[in-house]
Design a protein that fits this description.
Homodimer. With 200 residues, the chain is α/β, with parallel strands linked by helices. It is built from five helices and seven strands; from the N terminus they run βαβαβαββββαα.
Length: 200
């Protein structure tokens, strides 16, 4: 069974992606399992950050690597917070947390009529740190920002990300439905197809 390093310390992400990659007989290892620190993410695009994280993990481990960079892109804010999604609340004097991110976003969107937004996930996979042909898969889910949080499930901006196709927020959807249709789920399905085609 092939081992791949997931360039993330997020246990939820590891669990989600391990399940999605199970059909390929691949085992995902986390950075912490291998004693590898997090890579810096200095870039302004998801793909550059995911590539930097994958290169760092592959170089430190000597194994193939998979990395993900994801975030919320709000149309009225020119695509922001984008790569800074996790730290969004800190721009406005709040502590870093999901609840504060949601609060800050709703405050910033008061009086904004254009509520369009997208959750975006970019996955990058490398066979080695100097692989000249990284596999790149993107998943995107378009929706609208609600005026208040709705639902108890998920994490991050899920309670304010309304999906017209389901008539619910991500936080209202059952986990299996969310994972199948989320930005990360879509990116993972595309990555699965790329790995089958190019790596196996």
């Amino acid at each position: 069974m092939q081992k791949i390093v997931l360039a993330s310390g997020n246990p939820g992400k590891l669990f989600e992606l391990q399940a999605l990659l199970a059909p390929l007989q691949m085992t995902l290892l986390s950075l912490s399992e291998l004693g590898i620190g997090q890579a810096p993410e200095p870039h302004r695009t998801f793909v550059e950050n995911a590539l930097a994280k994958a290169r760092h993990a592959a170089a430190a481990s000597g194994l193939p690597a998979l990395a993900d960079d994801a975030g919320l892109c709000v149309h009225a804010f020119g695509g922001q917070p984008g790569v800074d999604t996790a730290y969004y609340a800190t721009r406005f004097g709040y502590e870093k947390s999901d609840a504060n991110n949601v609060r800050a976003l709703l405050e910033q969107m008061q009086g904004v009529q254009d509520r369009r937004a997208a959750m975006v996930s970019t996955l990058v996979a490398l066979r080695s740190a100097d692989d000249p042909e990284p596999l790149i898969a993107t998943g995107r889910v378009a929706g609208e920002i609600t005026r208040e949080p709705v639902g108890d499930g998920g994490f991050g901006f899920d309670p304010v990300m309304f999906l017209p196709e389901f008539g619910q927020t991500f936080a209202q959807l059952p986990a299996e439905v969310k994972n199948a249709h989320s930005h990360r789920g879509r990116a993972a399905q595309a990555m699965l197809a790329l790995m089958r085609e190019r790596w196996l």
